[in-house]
Design brief:
By secondary structure, the chain is an alpha/beta fold. 20% of the residues lie in helices and 28% in strands. The strands form two sheets. The protein has a seven-stranded mixed sheet with strand order 6-5-4-3-2-1-14. Bound molecules: zinc ion (2 copies).
């Protein structure tokens, strides 16, 4: 079975370039330094599963979707940078008579429907309050993780008989118990907004690159992609400082997971 992932958006909440910022990353014309808000497509055979609906969903759809509406949407949490494209997605699905399962644990779906009450009964959208989900032999699990000053979010773990990978975009200061589902994966996608962040922990909400490197030594994933990147990350400059199996994601990056050993 062909399994691949494609990053549709790899920025933090503000996007890169940031509005009104003249730093060298925000002024960069390098494609890898231009980032839309976070979202990632998982392709499992013929099924397309989109993680989160970025406020930049419409732009990402034109760039990457190949005129196809995803079959399933999974939500990590209900912050604007992860659900702001829901209105555009709802119109796209209903105008094209597409049936889409919109899946996340009960608390997240409740919050989404409180924000968008007019979408609760929208044709084509099937909101599913579930902690686990299955598509063919692909088993999907939502695991609650600490999101620091911003509350909590869910890491999403995917498993087939031969492959295990996970997407944990908005997390910080996880306990050992919270890390448990994310050990020894074939591929781990992890959010790191800054290379190093000196703000007091009480105001922080996403790991820095410096903080995750020692954690990765314990988790032992085969390959890691860092996403949810702010304007602190100059892709080319900073990637050369990473261990070989850890890479920065960029918008449009497509990875065939079943052939990951060839990376
Ligand atoms: Zn976020
Ligand atoms: Zn968040």
């Amino acid at each position: 079975m062909n399994v691949s992932i494609q990053f549709w958006g790899t920025s933090d909440a503000q996007g890169v370039p940031r509005m009104l910022c003249n730093c060298h990353v925000c002024s960069s014309e390098e494609k890898s330094n231009v980032r839309t808000r976070p979202s990632m497509l998982v392709e499992y055979g013929d099924d397309q599963i989109l993680i989160d609906l970025s406020p930049d969903f419409r732009q990402q759809f034109f760039a990457f979707a190949n005129k196809r509406v995803p079959d399933t949407v999974l939500f990590t949490h209900a912050h604007h940078d992860h659900i702001g494209g829901l209105g555009d997605f709802a119109d796209l699905a209903s105008w094209n008579q597409k049936k889409v399962n919109m899946v996340s644990p009960e608390d997240i779906i409740e919050t989404i429907l409180t924000r968008y009450p007019y979408l609760a009964r929208r044709n084509g959208l099937h909101f599913q309050k579930e902690d686990t989900w299955q598509i063919g032999n692909l088993r999907i699990g939502f695991h609650r993780v600490n999101h620091g000053a911003n509350g909590y979010s869910y890491g999403i773990r995917f498993e087939t008989d031969t492959l295990r990978f996970a997407y944990v975009s908005d997390a910080i200061n996880l306990t050992d118990a919270e890390w448990l589902p994310f050990f020894e994966l074939d591929c781990l996608i992890l959010g790191t907004s800054y290379w190093r962040e000196d703000a007091p922990m009480s105001r922080r909400s996403v790991y820095s690159v410096e903080e995750v490197l020692p954690i990765l030594e314990k988790l032992k994933p085969s390959v890691v992609y860092l996403t949810h990147l702010s304007h602190d990350i100059d892709h080319e400059q900073k990637e050369s400082l990473l261990p070989k199996h850890v890479r920065f994601a960029y918008d449009g990056l497509l990875i065939a997971l079943q052939s990951i050993e060839s990376l």
